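Input chain follows. Return structure tokens only.
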Amino acid sequence: MKNKVQIAIFISGKGTNALNLIRYFKNHSKISVDLIFSTRPNEAIEKISSEVGISFIHYSPDMGDWHEVALKACNDFQIDFIVLAGFLKKVTPSIIAAYPNRIINIHPSLLPKFGGKGMYGKHVHEAVIACGEKKSGITVHFVNDAFDEGEIIAQYDTIVYVNETPESLAEKIHKLEMEFFPKVLEKVIE
């Protein structure tokens, strides 16, 4: 019998959320990060993963279909939850079926606004500012078969000022992610 809930983190970008989660759960009594699955090369996260004993898989197309590689890895490592932290691919029905209500995503807006295909990173912040929104924030939600439409777990907001830029808004959103994402995951997973 396992004594910890094992999570896999799926990433496609810099991996700042993944790094934050690795640090947060490093000595946790009930939760461990056991796998990082990345669709892009990420030497920094790969190095840190290696140093702390987390398996790192950099997916490349010559390995086969990404979702089959990811699902096999999750099965091999006996993963209990999948966490999407800047993961840009649409999660397939086969993975959703294998992990019902056990795939959690973070999105850089207050869903249902500014979600969906193509809405990530600076694209979200530009859209929020262009629409004259007074608030933006983060949404942590379960993943279903539609981009950013799964059940919302938690949201945290910040004010969007009149002179806000996509860069300044991104910085504020990043701070919310760093502070709240690990705590929300901990609460859901425990």
